[in-house]
Amino acid sequence: AAKQKDERKALVLYMVVCNRSRTATTEQDKTSCALAYLRSGDIYYWRGHYAKALSLYLQGHKICESTEEKRKIIEFYKCFGNVYCMFKDYAQAVKYYERGYELRNQYPDPVITYRLLNNLCHTFYLMGDANNATRYYRLGMAQDRLGQSCDKIKWPQKRWLITRQLHFRLLHFRLLHFRLLHFRQNRLKTGKH
Description:
Elements: H1 2-19, H2 27-47, H3 50-65, H4 73-86, H5 90-102, H6 110-127, H7 130-145, H8 157-190
C-alpha cells in the first residue's frame, strides 16, 4: 500500500514536470522533462499499462533527441524494446535493443549496456535464435571481464552490477538447454540416435 502511494505521488510529480515540456526553454528544463517522461513511463510499465508507457517513452525520447544532453537516449531504446517484448513483437524489440547498444560508446552507461546485452540475449533465446543469443551472451560476459568496477558506480546501480553475473549464468544454462534440444531434434531428423 505504501509503495502504491509513493508511486502515485511520484507519478503526479513527474506529470507536473512533463506538462512543463511545452514551455521548457533551457537545456536543463528539457532534460528534466525527458527524464520525467522516462520515469513516468517506467511506472506505467511496472503497472502493466504498456501502451501508455510506450506513449510516454516516445514523448520523452522526442524531447531527449532535441537536447544537447542525450545520455539517457540508450535507456529510451531499452524501454522501447522492453515494451515490444511484452507485446511479443520480438523483432521490433531486437531492433530497439540493438539501436541502444550501437549508441553505447557515444552515450556510455555500463548498467544500461549490460541490460541491453541481457535483453538481446534473452530475446534471441525466445525467438529460437541460439547463434545470436550466444553472441550477445558472449558480449555480455566479455563486457563483464573488462572490469566495470562496482567501486566506481553508485548505489542503486551497484545492485544491478552485482547481480548481472547471475543473469548471464541463467541465460548460459538456457542456451545450453536450447542447443541440446536443437541437437536432439537434428539427430531425430537425420535418423541418428
